[in-house]
Amino acid sequence: MTNAELILEAKKVRERAYAPYSHHSVGAALVTKSGKIYHGCNIENAAYGPTNCAERTAFFRAVYEGEREFTKIAIAGGMEETDGNAPCAPCGVCRQVMMEFCDPETFKIVLANGEEEPLEYTLKELLPLGFGPDNLK
Ligand code: THU
Known about the structure:
By secondary structure, this protein is of the alpha+beta class. The chain is built from four helices and five strands, in the order αββαβαββα. The chain has helices at 3-14, 54-64, 92-101, 123-126, and strands at residues 24-32, 37-41, 70-79, 108-111, 119-122. It has a five-stranded mixed beta sheet. It binds tetrahydrodeoxyuridine. The site of tetrahydrodeoxyuridine has 15 residues, from strand 1, helix 2 and strand 3.
């Protein structure tokens, strides 16, 4: 699947976002090593703190299903009245969750970029000097 197709997957599930407080809705499409896709949306909470981002929803769904190896995540989001085509970068907490399960050198983070080719970063680019499982060996 191309990055542009993956962004479409993220945009599709963005419609499932539960974001009555921020009105900022996000969708994510996470790809496993075997090529399976796990989707996620953000899920907010009246107490604010328990809010779960789209990226973490996708990771937690996948890990619950037994997946541990991932190659890529596509993210599309923005204020709910927008088309979700502007880049929506993952928050620090989500980058840290990626660090738990992904190789920072090879795991790719794909962001919508308007009419242009989606942006693509490695986890290492977005989380330099990250702390991860290797630090506890
Ligand atoms: N959010 C995500 O789901 N992913 C991101 O990459 C950035 C932020 C959500 C969390 C919250 O529900 C809303 O967007 C505003 O922060």
